[in-house]
Amino acid sequence: MEKSKFLTKTKTVLTKVLHVLSKIKSMPQVHFILVGVFLLYVGRNIANGPTPPSLNFMAEVLIFTVAALGLNLLLGYSGLVSLSTAAFIGVTTNGINILIKTFEFSFISAALTMLIISALFGLIIGVLSLQMEGIYLAIATLFVGYIIIQLFTAAAIFNNGNSVRIGAVNFFGEKVYNTLLIADRIVLYNIVVVCLIIAFIITYNIVSSPSGRALMAISRSLHAAEAMGIRVKKYRLMAFVIATMFASFAGILHSIYFQTTGTADKWGLNASLIILAIVVIGGMKSILGMFLGSFIIIGIPAFYLREIEWFKGMDYLLTGVLLVLVVIFYPYGSAHIVYDIKKLYYKLKIKIKQRLVKKND
Amino acid sequence: MSFSVLIRIFFNSLLLGSIVALATLGIVLIFRTSKATNFAQGSIGTMNAYIAAYFTMTKGYNWFLAVFIAMITAFLTGIVIDKLFIRPAKKANIVGKQILTFGIIMILSGIMNSERGILRELFPSVPIRPDSLFEITNQISIFGANVEINTIFVFSVTFVLLAIVFWFIQKTKWGLATRVTASNEETARMMGVPTKTVTMFSWAFAAMLGALAGIFLSSRVAMDPLLLIGVQVSAFFAGVFGGFATFYGPVIAAYLIGFLINLSSYYAITELKTDALYAEVFVYFMILVVLYFKPYGLFGKKPIRKV
To answer: What pLDDT score was predicted for residue B75?
Structure first.
């Protein structure tokens, strides 16, 4: 009697635990953290491998992922294009450099200040976006990015567009992390990964909040959203401010890991187009897809194509071919490859089942 | 500022303005007919300008013959790009097409930086400077200002070409087809307009305009795979400033921007003793302010859209 009671009790507890586990399993946050753990593992393996500079490529992939997350909010969830994302990464790295060297800020306070300043920049573009749309808005943001890059090149305070070292980063207390030391570099990489996970979770929360839903409604149909009583202007401004802050966050990560400002040319139209390509290739409205897209565009040429003898010096061309192929065959982003694989799996399953049934007959 | 200086600035900006106008017209043509923002216009032009340079410098051909060959290759490039990349990507949206043209940039610059076989001879890795039809020393005096013959030649070629293009678009049957495709592709197709052919030829024609811009510019600055990047950015700005809705607006805006930048650069260097880049920044900033109040460009109209 006692035993059966105990058994039923354990059974109920077990089912409850399993239920909770399955709930946790389906939570997107858990997926993000799992991806983060995987990235930490990959980073450790690369750092101990034969060619430590490839850790730099991995960090670049992650930094562009963060910038792409912001642009994804803009493009995927509200249908607005920005061609000045990379310029704001440059604004942040240069701003941190000046704040630390000239005004003697600590790293954390410099980073926070630059986040706020970038938000103001985002507000400026947002105000422009209230008037324009489509290609006009895209080129207007290109204007802003171009003006910023030209200012970097012209002004002596920005070192005339040359890249300078910001110097070792000091977060709290006395400990200083220098990217030139391999032992410190892996720590910095881990910090970047943690920040990426935080960015993932923030994006998810924004998207699933009422504001995110409003943005989505605007992206589908501006007039319908307006008719539903959504204040379009407010949300457009918000989208631009958030996207620019994400770009600024990417800039902060760049100055944490690489500890340089980067040349002005690095943050030009080309880099902005790369970020745009990441969003399109990764799949709009997909969060983990941004990492996939970033890896396809920056990671695959850096890690694989350069290694193969026959492809030497052609990595740029092959990336272009890859880009074109993905746009032609997956116009909604490579995140949809997963669905196709699932479809194929089910098709095969049904076919095998039919075969088995035929055999039995 | 004396009158002769003003004349000199005016003629200098005619050269750059013509180059930008050619590039802009190509971009507008493609945007109107295939709804794609063509970032690859500069790369296509540069590649074919290299071909012209190869025939004049290495093979020693006549300038006109070399340009003619480059025009043919540009025509073919445009058709290949439309057939191979743009048409299969029917499902891609407008941003997807932007990325497609970015992919084309990557492919073309991959070809230009390649070091295999004939590509190495066609696209040398050191910057080259092909001869123009008229030497830089070949100058005439207009109102006391020395003006290069090359500038006048470039401007007159551009002017004649643009006049032909506008006549073609406004007066001929094919031009009508282009305009119809530009205004509404679906309806045009239903009415029996061969929109596919129109799109294909507009890509080919845009590539030719880009190549001509590249050839004109290559006599001024040393040639490398990034030759037309600056021109292309200016061309986009001209397109937006003039408005994509018309074909003539961007062309006028291209000359206007060229003149304003040259004038303010001169003022910045001689009067304010600062970098000419600040003048460019100032002009672009002012254009941005104008665009805030006229968001569809100087000559543009607000597109009417069904809800």
So the answer is: 94
Beta-carbon contacts of residue A283 (< 8 Å; ≥ 6 apart): A289, A292, A293, A330, A332, A333, A334, A335, A336
SS3 A260: strand
Give residues 237 to 266 of B whose Cβ lies within 8 Å of A: 237, 239-240, 244
Count of CA atoms in the C-beta half-sphere (13 A) of B265: 15
Count of structural domains, chain B? 1
Q: Mark yes or no for CB contact B236/A147 under 8 Å.
A: no
Residue contact B307–A142, C-beta within 8 A? no
Domain A29-330 belongs to what topology?
ABC transporter involved in vitamin B12 uptake, BtuC (1.10.3470)
Name the residue range of residue B268's domain: 3-293
Q: Is residue B299 part of a domain?
A: no
How many C-beta neighbours within 10 Å does residue B235 have? 30
Q: Which positions ≥6 away from B296 have C-beta within 8 Å?
A: A132, A136, B243, B245, B302, B303
**Domain containing residue B177: CATH number:** 1.10.3470
Mind listing the pLDDT tens digit for each residue in B212-267?
A: 999 888 877 878 888 888 888 889 999 889 888 888 889 999 999 888 888 888 88
Q: Mutate which of A80, A324, A329, A332 to test chain B, going by most B C-beta atoms within 10 A?
A: A324
CA atoms within 13 A on the CB side of A243: 36
CA-to-CA dists, residue B221 to A89, A264, B301, angstroms:
31, 21, 37
* Closest CA relative to residue B1, chosen from B284, B269, B189, B185: B269
Higher pLDDT, B185 or B158: B158
Cα B118 to Cα A101, A295, B50, B54, B113: the distances in Å are 51, 33, 13, 11, 12
Please indicate, yes or no, if residue B305 is contained in any of the structural domains: no
In this structure, are residues B165 and B147 in contact, taking their beta carbons and an 8 Å threshold?
no
SS (H, E, C) A102-147: CCCCCHHHHHHHHHHHHHHHHHHHHHHHHHCCHHHHHHHHHHHHHH
ipTM of the complex, rounded to two decimals: 0.85
Q: Which pLDDT band holds residue A309 (cuts at 50, 70, 90)?
A: low
Does the reported pTM lie above 0.95? Answer: no
Sort out which chain B residues have CB atoms less than 8 A from A314's CB and list them: 110, 114
Question: Is the CB of A139 less than 8 angstroms away from the CB of B239?
Answer: yes
